[in-house]
Structure formats: C-alpha cells, structure tokens
Design goal:
37% of the residues lie in helices and 20% in strands. The chain has helices at 11-30, 57-66, 68-71, and strands at 2-5, 35-40, 50-54, 75-78.
Length: 93
C-alpha cells in the first residue's frame, strides 16, 4: 500500500494527526492485523509518501478504512498487488 499526501494538505496538520495514526497502526498490528511494516520513504522528495506492507490485500483494505490519515482527509492510499519472491520457507505462488 502506498500513501501520498493529498494536494494542498497543510503538513502541520499531518503532525497533528500523526499520534492518532501511530496509535492506530500499533493497535492494528497488536491485534493481529497482518501489518508487516510501514513507514515513509527515506528520500528528500517530500512527495514520495510512505508505504505499508501487509500479509493480505484484505488486511490493507481494513487498515486503510479506519486509518486517521485517510479518514481525516490527509492522505490517499493506493493498494498495489505484487508477486513476492519469498526467501524463507514459504511456498512459491
């Protein structure tokens, strides 16, 4: 899942909402929500946004549906399916 701030969003507003976003993603993960990792891209490009990796598309959809960054209109989320090459003992798809 990719996040991008909506055009015209005041970055200070993002700072105000971040604590609710952080509490939400921690609770989602702790409840077994299939969140593997998330965070902003490490680039100087302010438009680069952030990414979340989920075990299933359904988990990503559930996350987006209640994330304060989305519900409060700061970010747009886009889910991209991918064919992962797992380097552990998972079966190939």
């Amino acid at each position: 899942m990719l996040y991008r701030l909506r055009d015209g969003v005041d970055r200070a507003r993002g700072g105000e909402v971040f604590s609710r976003h952080q509490a939400y993603y921690r609770a989602f993960h702790d409840a077994g929500g299939e969140l593997i990792a998330l965070g902003p891209f490490a680039t100087a490009d302010a438009a680069a946004g952030s990414m979340g990796i989920f075990a299933t598309r359904d988990a990503a959809e559930r996350f987006i549906a209640a994330d304060p960054f989305v519900t409060e209109g700061l970010a747009e989320a886009r889910i991209l399916d991918w064919d992962a090459v797992w380097l552990d003992d998972r079966p190939e798809s």
